[in-house]
């Protein structure tokens, strides 16, 4: 995705008067314009100028962080100065944050403020979870910006700026904020319109916290809601009101385009007597508010997301010369769709047989067309061999909705899980032979500014079977172990394992950001230190029966994790046959701009990851 988001500069001109030089038989007058014409017909449509003095325009920017892509937000500032809205409003996640290091927070806020200070017009801040999560972040916010929730009125429109992270944890509202909102709405009972801005779209989460209370307080007044956080655009309707979840203005995204709701944009809002008129200004043009509705999102989920449209990797155990992959088209909707595809080699293989596809996928059915590939030389590593460029289209309310994308055909080597005859869960690695260990990839993959060589941050790891379970081991080199008692993970030293024990086909599907297939388990081991004990955390939660031990070493720390077979069987749905694993290290050191990250293989949700990489078999 490019870092800019608008290719067109729109110029407005106000026409005050036109005076015909020729002899005139009639004249036309409307407001500030007076035109004389010499004929009964006129070379204009009408003179009802679109210049309501009560109307006004402002812009909204959305998530900049949670995986910041440098330069995008700064260019958005330059574009906004060209567009000249009356002011700009944010929906939060302005800095990376998530730290109790005051100096780091001040540095990040200074950098952000230096950008918005370039705006010709006012900028209204709003707190996201990256901006306002712990007491130190809250203190820095109050010192720099004052209230974390507030309101203002402009041209009889009430703007309500909420903080969806002040209830003691992320995605919660405090009672004090609810009380303030109730008072604010009572003191402003009948504005022309009410606009609600919040970072987290709690109405779209299983845990809505107090959102129902907020909607009850809003009552029957006309209002519109704007949020961010999900990095994917959705227009929804609740209680007859429009709710918008915005995409990104520089935050992490898979960038698959408009119909996926994944794009960089600013929202241009024109306030009229009938409410806000929404335009999404982005890299590939200007789209209206229906660029992605909740109905489109739900159909996309049922036809494309969570591995429904996928091309699982071909797994092999020794060498690869030729094989057959199956494109998986699972339509979980009640609507048929048309699927077209072109297959093309990436240079290391040839497509055998047909290289195109054009089929209809019926409702609630699975179609699995085959793709055969062969290579001239045997392959012994993980590689992308071919690409499938596809379009998917369906009819919705007499409109053709079309998606375009690509799937990569990969081959990945499965590794054997050897058995440990002797094992004791103590964090010591004496029983592990050197041949079982895998080193981290060369170089840093995250925040290279804080990386100072292998002595600063590096690791090796291993996996093996023991009796009735899976055992993981890791040895970390780290010249400074950093832990804190606040419990916030990103600014501490930790190593985490990503584990997928589902069926071979399911764990070989390529993933994208925020489009991860279910069944993945993450285990984060927070490093031991002199002051704080090690801790193992699970996401979504730590499975029952998982145990661990960790200890400090001369050069860093080491750890062992035991995962019972019953946990793997539960994920697999039957006795497990294999597992996909990945390991990453985060090293947080004082006075550095965020943690350094190293990896064994690229994160599965990244563009450059090879589908199916990291698979092991029993």
Automatic annotation (TrEMBL):
<feature type="signal peptide">
    <location>
        <begin position="1"/>
        <end position="22"/>
    </location>
</feature>
<dbReference type="InterPro" id="IPR004843">
    <property type="entry name" value="Calcineurin-like_PHP"/>
</dbReference>
<dbReference type="InterPro" id="IPR029052">
    <property type="entry name" value="Metallo-depent_PP-like"/>
</dbReference>
<feature type="domain" description="Calcineurin-like phosphoesterase">
    <location>
        <begin position="73"/>
        <end position="233"/>
    </location>
</feature>
<dbReference type="Pfam" id="PF00149">
    <property type="entry name" value="Metallophos"/>
</dbReference>
<protein>
    <submittedName>
        <fullName>Metallophosphoesterase</fullName>
    </submittedName>
</protein>
<dbReference type="InterPro" id="IPR051918">
    <property type="entry name" value="STPP_CPPED1"/>
</dbReference>
<keyword id="KW-0732">Signal</keyword>
<dbReference type="GO" id="GO:0016787">
    <property type="term" value="F:hydrolase activity"/>
</dbReference>
């Amino acid at each position: 995705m490019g870092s800019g988001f608008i290719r067109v500069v729109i110029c407005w001109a106000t026409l005050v008067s036109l005076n015909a030089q020729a002899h005139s038989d009639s004249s036309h007058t409307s407001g500030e314009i007076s035109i004389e014409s010499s004929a009964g017909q006129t070379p204009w449509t009408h003179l009802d100028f679109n210049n309501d003095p009560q109307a006004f325009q402002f812009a909204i920017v959305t998530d900049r962080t949670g995986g910041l892509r440098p330069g995008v937000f700064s260019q958005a500032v330059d574009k906004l100065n060209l567009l000249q809205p009356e002011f700009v409003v944010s929906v939060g996640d302005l800095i990376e944050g998530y730290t109790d290091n005051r100096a780091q927070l001040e540095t990040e806020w200074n950098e952000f403020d230096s950008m918005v200070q370039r705006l010709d017009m006012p900028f209204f801040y709003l707190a996201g979870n990256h901006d306002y999560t712990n007491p130190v972040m809250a203190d820095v916010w109050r010192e720099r910006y004052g209230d974390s929730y507030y309101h203002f009125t402009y041209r009889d429109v009430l703007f309500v700026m909420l903080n969806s992270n002040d209830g003691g944890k992320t995605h919660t509202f405090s009672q004090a904020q609810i009380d303030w909102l109730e008072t604010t709405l009572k003191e402003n009972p009948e504005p022309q319109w009410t606009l609600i801005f919040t970072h987290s779209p709690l109405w779209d989460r299983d845990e809505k916290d107090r959102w129902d209370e907020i909607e009850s307080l809003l009552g029957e007044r006309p209002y519109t809601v704007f949020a961010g956080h999900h990095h994917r655009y959705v227009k929804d309707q609740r209680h007859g009101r429009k709710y918008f979840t915005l995409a990104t203005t520089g935050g992490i995204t898979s960038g698959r385009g408009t119909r996926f709701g994944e794009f960089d944009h600013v929202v241009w809002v024109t306030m009229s007597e009938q409410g806000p008129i929404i335009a999404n200004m982005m890299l590939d043009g200007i789209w209206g508010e229906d660029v992605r509705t909740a109905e489109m999102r739900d159909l996309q989920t049922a036809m494309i997301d969570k591995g429904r449209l996928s091309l699982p990797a071909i797994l092999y155990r020794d060498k690869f010369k030729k094989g057959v992959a199956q494109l998986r088209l699972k339509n979980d909707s009640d609507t048929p769709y048309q699927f077209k595809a072109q297959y093309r080699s990436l240079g290391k293989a040839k497509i055998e047989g047909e290289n195109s596809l054009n089929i209809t996928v019926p409702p609630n059915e699975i179609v699995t067309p085959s793709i055969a590939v062969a290579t001239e030389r045997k392959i012994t590593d993980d590689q992308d061999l071919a690409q499938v460029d596809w379009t998917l289209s369906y009819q919705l309310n007499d409109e053709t909705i079309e998606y375009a994308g690509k799937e990569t055909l990969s081959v990945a080597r499965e590794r054997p899980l050897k058995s440990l005859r002797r094992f004791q869960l103590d964090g010591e690695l004496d029983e592990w032979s050197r041949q079982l260990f895998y080193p981290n990839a060369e170089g840093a993959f995250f925040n290279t500014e804080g990386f100072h060589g292998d002595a600063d941050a590096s690791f090796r790891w291993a996996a093996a079977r023991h009796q009735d379970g899976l055992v993981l081991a890791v040895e970390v080199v780290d010249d400074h172990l950093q832990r804190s008692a606040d419990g916030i993970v990103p600014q501490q030293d930790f190593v985490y394992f990503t584990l997928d024990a589902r069926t071979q086909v399911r764990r070989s599907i390529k993933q994208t950001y925020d489009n991860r297939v279910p069944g993945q388990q993450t285990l984060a081991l927070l490093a031991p230190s002199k002051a704080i004990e090690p801790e193992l955390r699970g996401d979504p939660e730590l499975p029952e029966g998982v145990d661990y031990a960790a200890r400090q070493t001369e050069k860093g720390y080491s750890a062992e994790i035991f995962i019972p077979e019953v946990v793997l069987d539960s994920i697999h749905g039957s006795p497990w046959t294999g597992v996909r694993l990945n390991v990453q290290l985060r090293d947080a050191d004082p006075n550095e701009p965020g943690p350094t990250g190293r990896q064994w293989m690229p994160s599965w949700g990244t563009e450059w990851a090879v589908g199916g990489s990291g698979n092991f078999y029993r």
